[in-house]
TrEMBL record:
It comes from the Bacteria. SUPFAM superfamilies: CheY-like (SSF52172). Residues 146-207 form the HTH LytTR-type domain. InterPro entries: CheY-like_superfamily, LytR-like, LytTR_DNA-bd_dom, Sig_transdc_resp-reg_receiver. The lineage of its organism: Bacteria, Pseudomonadati, Bacteroidota, Chitinophagia, Chitinophagales. This is LytTR family two component transcriptional regulator. The keyword Phosphoprotein applies. It comes from Sediminibacterium goheungense. Residues 3-114 form the Response regulatory domain. One of its GO terms (molecular function) is DNA binding. Keywords: Phosphoprotein. SMART domains: LytTR, REC.
């Protein structure tokens, strides 16, 4: 999950991004700033993966903010002014959101940031993602091939990992399972369910078929899930 901050001198912009971010499982907004100078100090002393950054702010522009940083995090510019787009992309911005932007457009920007994060992370490690994981189970650590996992279901303080061959109750929390599996094409569709996109055979706004099982889509997840799946199928 990407650690994010929002830098914008308009309170309404904070509210919009906060509302949209609650529908996205790959970002975690850890702080909001009205003052760009305070944001710079925060970035210099705390781990930040992504900044949602306004451009025209009192006394200090978003462009200037990025230029002051020797090793800036990823940036998604959010502004009402289209004229800064070229300069923004020259600073290697992940995306440029023109206010007012829709949830669909916000989701696309977040997906781009996450894809870039994964790419950069792999380059740094110079290693391919493993094709399996070991999880704590009753009989000790159990090996699971990631592509064979159809979905994960929350069971109190445990999670049930389901494959075509069977079910394994693991000593993981849903949060741990989500962090572990999101980079492998899994999608949170319900408070209690995390599914592998590759195993989805059909879906509506309220449910989907994963393998031979019908999985409900939670009301709070419906819009984001629908946008992700329909965008991916275009």
């Amino acid at each position: 999950m990407l650690k994010c901050i929002v830098v914008d001198d308009e309170p309404l912009a904070h509210e919009v991004i906060k509302s949209f971010s609650e529908k996205v499982q790959i970002i975690d907004i850890v702080s909001y700033f009205n003052d760009p100078t305070k944001a710079v100090r925060y970035i210099q002393t705390n781990p930040v993966d992504l900044v949602f950054l306004d451009i025209e702010m009192a006394g200090f522009t978003g462009i200037e903010l990025v230029k002051t940083l020797s090793d800036p995090p990823m940036v998604i510019f959010t502004t009402a002014f289209a004229g800064y787009a070229v300069e923004g992309f020259e600073l290697d911005a992940v995306d440029y959101l023109l206010k007012p932007f829709s949830l669909t457009r916000f989701l696309k920007a977040c997906d781009r940031a996450y894809d870039q994060y994964i790419t950069n992370h792999h380059k740094e490690n110079k290693q391919a993602k493993p094709d399996h994981i070991f999880v704590k189970a009753e009989q000790g650590r159990q090996k699971l091939v990631i592509t064979e996992i159809e979905y994960v279901e929350s069971k109190a303080n445990y999670v049930l990992m389901v494959t075509a061959e069977g079910r394994l109750l693991t000593r993981l929390t849903m949060k741990e399972a989500e962090t572990l599996l999101l980079p492998y094409g899994f999608l949170r569709v319900h408070r209690s369910f995390l599914v592998c996109r590759a195993h989805i055979s059909r879906y509506t706004k309220k449910e989907m078929q994963v393998g031979s099982n019908i999985i409900p889509i939670g009301e709070n997840y419906m819009e984001a899930v629908w946008q992700k799946l329909t965008t991916a199928s275009m």
